[in-house]
Amino acid sequence: MIPTLIDKQDNFEIVRDQIATILVTEVANQMTLATIAGEDPDDWELRIFTERSNPWEQFLNEQTDRSPLINIWYDNSNFVPSGSNISERQETVGIFNIDCYGYGKSADISGGGHTPGDQEAAFEVQKALRLVRNILMAAEYTYLDLRGLVWQRWPQSITVFQPQIDAAKVLQIVGARIAFKVTFNEFSPQVTENTLELVSTTVFRTEDGEIVLEADYEYPL
Amino acid sequence: MGLRETAESDLGSILEDSSTGFGVPIIVTDPNGTIGNLIGFSDDISQVIDPDTGVAVSGRFATVALRISSLTLAGLDLPIGIADASSKPWQIQFDDINGNTFLFKVSESNPDRALGIVTCQLELYE
Q1: What is the SS3 string spanning chain B?
Q2: Nearest to A61 by CA among A117, A108, A123, A105
Q3: Any idea what DSSP says for residue B53?
Q4: All domains of chain A, ordered by start, with CATH?
Q5: Angle, vertex CA A148, rays to CA A136 and CA A154, nearest 5
Q6: Which of A55, A105, A211, B29 has the smallest number of CB atoms closer than 10 Å to its CB?
Q7: B101: contact with A, CB 8 A cutoff
């Protein structure tokens, strides 16, 4: 029997949460940098979520915050026997989907013309993709700030989903997905050793260079 | 009067009756700024949008149905979706049942020239 309670997070959970933490931290930092640069910080805002599966209500009706939504969710893992050992460590290649949602609303341009909502939604989601990829692939996060645990991170693919042609809608939403591949280690519970005997030893070097080990222990006679 | 003409004239009482029917006042503005005050059907309901990510997005679906002959009388052509960003779109404005006013642009129109009715699919406009 395994004698200890398995109350730890697996590393795929830690990696997923780390991706979210990096994005939240860096988006806030980018907004600060944008303010310093005299730009509108809202153009750098992303709203980050993890493992959400309920329909998004954020875009319903007249929303004031139209910044893109990001949902990070764990998709799958493959275990690599050649990089693992049979007792403790499993090299894992995990896919984390980073779904981005862009919102667009058609708007009048006072000087003439208008901004089409479908185009705005596409631009918004592409902005989100740009920010997410640049942040996660920045040199600062080569190992996602989890050196020793993460071996490699890589954007495996980016897919933008075309809106359905026959589903004309009041609100323009475009979705996109970054399949983010992370190679890391998973660890499993190990046998806890029992102390059989305490032995104290002293190592001497004698005058003629001989190494002598002196052990002091008790044993039943 | 043939049946088609009868059906078209019936639109006046079916589609444009705002006192005892389902007709509501609808303001139509064409890309040149010509405004027509018409009566027609409006629809504005919730809709689930699937952007193919596996997580749906709550949204809205709005349409209006207008009598083509009334558009003509108001000096308007058939509304169409305007893709060109340098042009103004066809705009539609109406109130919901609680008196809240919403402005939309026409994203797509489906005219039924046999019966004389056009249904416009809308998207929010500001």
Answers
A1: CCHHHHHHHHHHHHCCCCCCCCCEEEEEECCCCCEEEEEEEEEEEEEEECCCCCCCEEEEEEEEEEEHHHHHHCCCCCCCCCCCCCCCCCEEEEECCCCCEEEEEEEEEEEECCCCEEEEEEEEEC
A2: A105
A3: S
A4: 11-193 (3.30.2000.10)
A5: 30
A6: A211
A7: no
Q: Do A102 and A117 touch, CB atoms closer than 8 A?
A: no
pTM of the model: 0.81
**Most A CBs within 10 Å: which of B88, B107, B122, as the mutation test of the A interface?**
B107
- In the chain, the amino acid numbered A158 is I
Contacts of A173 in chain B (CB under 8 A): 49, 51, 57, 59
Q: Which letter does DSSP use for residue A67 in this model?
A: P
* pLDDT tens profile B61-73: 899 999 999 999 9
Q: What ipTM did this prediction achieve?
A: 0.80
* Helices A11-36/A117-136 angle, 10° precision: 110
Work out the average pLDDT over B94-106: 93
Q: How far apart are CA A97 and CA A20, in angstroms?
A: 12
Q: List the structure tokens of A74.
A: 């764990």
